[in-house]
Automatic annotation (TrEMBL):
Domain of life from the UniProt record: Eukaryota
The CCHC-type domain, residue ranges: 204-219
Annotated coiled-coil segments of the chain: 427-454
Highest classification ranks of the organism: Eukaryota, Metazoa, Ecdysozoa, Arthropoda, Chelicerata
Polar residues composition bias: residue spans: 8-20, 410-421
Biased amino acid composition, Basic and acidic residues: 283-299
Keywords associated with the record: Coiled coil, Metal-binding, Zinc, Zinc-finger
Biased composition (Low complexity): 343-357
The protein, known as: CCHC-type domain-containing protein
Length: 479
């Protein structure tokens, strides 16, 4: 009797069209993961100098505990508490020095020699930019040095603080004052473009590791090919010929290490880790939210309304609220139909809310002002009706030029004309006062109307919100 599954195991499985064996699929190459060593924060009042050995040596093996500090103090001639602080970065084979005075910084910048036991070790120190500074990169000739470039480079619109040539290449890093990188600077009276400076991942082709530069390699391997990394024999004419296929130490592609085509050449910006205090604040902020979530889970489910299932063959529609679900307002506004046929609310006045005492005071002052103006208007009208207009003197005429009948006629006409002029002047004055009073009343009424509109705009949303909340509570209780 055959065991179960023997037939299925004997028959080979059918291969799907277009499938590829796992051995044939090339796994994507990963970039080299590297992060700079965590260092203490440097104070803002300190000048930072980076010391790098000019010969091949392992600083960690050459210096014992406190050895690098003793050598720097002996070279500068300072005491123990002279304001010098050092951080040896062993994996990068460099030393970072922080000083508080420019005199100490000037002693450590450039080519110096430190004493290690009986040995004299040459170092090169350069000032690290800090504060309101920025860096740019320019292309120069190969035979230039940092000292010669300081005399040949000039920025007319700003100040160049420091110039450093990168090894034996034709590139120099220019540190300028401020946060704006110049577009052009003068190199031997010639305008040359300035590119942005980007930090690169340090990779050493002499030993095949990522983390330090080739000029500061502590353990170089002379039998290693700097292009492909293969072990080859050295002769007087150089390495033995071999099948050399370049391989980048950073991206793993078939190119030279640190070439312009390398996709992982530049460093990525990374956020610093949270301090212990920030972790505590974050945990405190997360605790209330976690407590709220636990309370929501612990709430009983019997208070929630059960969904109503629709009969078979019918689609369920969302429940809507009717007019009977909401309580009616105490004083509903009247609706007036306009010429378009759309109902709109009539501009009814509403009393001010007792929660706004300033508006109440303004309304009371306006009412008193209107009453005063109305009393003045009534008193002015009564005084004008009680006092008759004063008689005017007749115009004198020459009696020798006209007859007796003409003189009587002219005197009557002149007397009537003067009286009519006086009455017209008085009436014009009264009309002017009345118009001014009406204008004042109109302004006061407009102000009252605007204040009332603002008050209504504040009251109506509150009343609607209260009504909706009351309706929702009634609905929940009924359900």
């Amino acid at each position: 009797m055959k065991p179960r599954g023997s037939t299925a195991a004997a028959q080979p499985q059918a291969r799907k069209t277009g499938s590829t064996p796992a051995a044939c699929v090339e796994s994507p190459r990963k970039l080299a993961t590297w992060k700079p060593t965590h260092m203490p924060r440097i104070r803002s009042d300190e000048l930072v100098i980076v010391l790098k050995p000019k010969i091949t040596m392992d600083l960690h093996a050459a210096f014992g505990p406190g050895g690098i500090g003793t050598a720097v103090q002996r070279f500068t001639g300072s005491t123990t508490n002279a304001g010098i602080s050092m951080w040896p970065v062993w994996n990068r084979n460099i030393v970072v020095v922080g000083v508080k005075t420019e005199s100490l910084a000037s002693k450590l910048i450039g080519d110096i020699t430190l004493t290690i036991g009986d040995r004299q070790v040459p170092f090169q120190g350069h000032l690290k930019s800090a504060g309101e500074t920025c860096k740019g990169v320019v292309t120069v000739t190969d035979n230039e040095t940092s000292e010669s470039l300081r005399r040949k480079l000039e920025w007319i619109d700003g100040e160049i603080l420091y110039v450093r040539k990168l090894g034996t290449s034709n590139v120099a890093v220019v540190t300028s004052k401020g946060r704006r990188v110049p577009r052009f600077i003068h190199y031997c009276c010639e305008n040359v473009p300035v590119r942005y400076y980007k930090k690169t991942v340090p990779a050493c082709y002499r030993c095949g590791t990522v983390g330090h530069r080739p000029d500061a390699c502590p353990n170089p391997d002379n039998q290693r090919c700097i292009h492909c990394g293969a072990k080859v024999e050295l002769t007087l004419e150089g390495p033995v010929k071999h099948d050399c296929q370049p391989e980048c130490l950073i991206c793993g592609e078939n190119r030279f290490t640190g070439s312009a085509q390398c996709i992982g050449k530049f460093r990525k910006a990374w956020k610093p880790a949270l301090t212990q205090r920030q972790h505590g604040l974050k945990n405190k902020q997360e605790e209330p939210s976690a407590a709220l979530r636990s309370d929501e889970k612990a709430k009983p489910m019997h208070n929630k309304p059960k969904p109503i299932k629709a009969p078979a063959g019918q689609k369920s529609r969302p429940s809507t609220f009717g007019a009977e679900d909401f309580p009616s307002l105490a004083n509903p506004p009247k609706q007036v139909s306009n010429w378009v046929g759309v109902s709109s609310q009539s501009p009814t006045t509403t009393t001010a809310s007792p929660s706004n005492p300033e508006i109440l005071k303004q309304l009371e002052a306006m009412k008193k002002r209107i009453e005063t103006l109305e009393r003045e208007n009534r008193a002015l009208k009564a005084s004008q009706a009680a006092t008759p207009p004063p008689p005017s003197e007749p115009v004198a005429m020459h009696t020798s030029d006209c007859s007796d009948d003409e003189q009587d006629t002219q005197s009557d006409v002149s007397g009537n004309t003067s009286v009519s002029k006086t009455v017209v002047g008085a009436s014009n004055d009264i009309e002017g006062r009345l118009s001014r009073l009406e204008a004042k009343l109109e302004e006061q009424s407009k102000m009252i109307l605007e204040q009332t509109k603002l008050t209504v705009q504040d009251i109506i949303p509150q009343q609607l919100n209260l009504s909706v909340q009351a309706a929702m509570q009634d609905l929940k209780q009924s359900v």
